[in-house]
Amino acid sequence: MKSRFKPDRGLTSRMVVTSFLLGLLYVGFVALLIALTKSAVLAVVIAGGMLFAQYWFSDRIALYAMRGRIVSPEEAPQLHGVIDRLCALADMPKPRVAIADVDLPNAFATGRNPDKAVVCVTTGILRRLDTDELEGVLAHELSHVAHRDVAVMTIASFLGVLAGLITRFGLYGGLGGGRGRDQNTAVIVLTIVLVSAAVYAISFLLTRALSRYRELAADRAGAMLTGRPSALASALTKISGDIARIPSRDLRQAEAFNAFFFAPAISGKGVSLSSLFSTHPPLEKRLDRLGVLSRELGEQA
């Protein structure tokens, strides 16, 4: 079902290319491991089952990990009201609505398709944002659902785990045949370690590049839907500033969700790391893009 969110050809092409490259990467990796050791077959079967479970139950897994729960319109009338207006404006199915009882101000969307999607906000973000800012954040998250990049990121992010999992099976699964082949075994182990490290590094960079672009695409799509880029920029500024004051221990607990969050759960120190390793574009870049869009739309301050 199409929505009024304008298709983003740049995002679509990047999702296709990233998926294709990751697919080639892992087909070659698995083929090599199967040639080297029979243990890889079992690893592939188990990893495939895990990937299927994560894809099929991604919404439940994410909510459980973030201590989120589905809320009814009676429990959260304001939140439901904002999402109802945005879904009507975008002409898209309304996702389930959830709240996570954590102080970290953030939001994320999950689910394998628009009909099974969930948009979750934290109690921390509800306390900090006004209605216009919250609307901007939710429009951003709904664009992820409409563009279906949530499902692509779920699969792409999981594939990075596959290299390590298969390597463990290779190392501890009796590869190489027997004890009399110590030299051959050492060569096989070294080959698997080096290849798996390369596969992980390449997949890591591919998924990070896709993640950064999809955030910029969602910023633009969400701001276009509401017609108020300044409200989204205000929300970004406020959330990023408050996240910097969250204790590092709490941020580390949420790091696994950074690729899906509206704003990354990192302290100010993390911003200095290379952009190659970031799940989100720099805050300044997102604000600059929204400023340009605001001028294009003729929005008044």
From TrEMBL:
Membrane disposition: Multi-pass membrane protein
Known EC number: 3.4.24.-
Cofactor(s) annotated in UniProt: Zn(2+)
GO cellular component terms, semicolon-separated: plasma membrane
Active site: E141
Keywords: Cell membrane, Hydrolase, Membrane, Metal-binding, Metalloprotease, Protease, Stress response, Transmembrane, Transmembrane helix, Zinc
Boundaries of every Peptidase M48 domain copy: 74-290
Domain of life: Bacteria
Matches recorded under NCBIfam families: PRK02391.1
Protein name as it appears in the record: Protease HtpX homolog
Organism: Kribbella antiqua
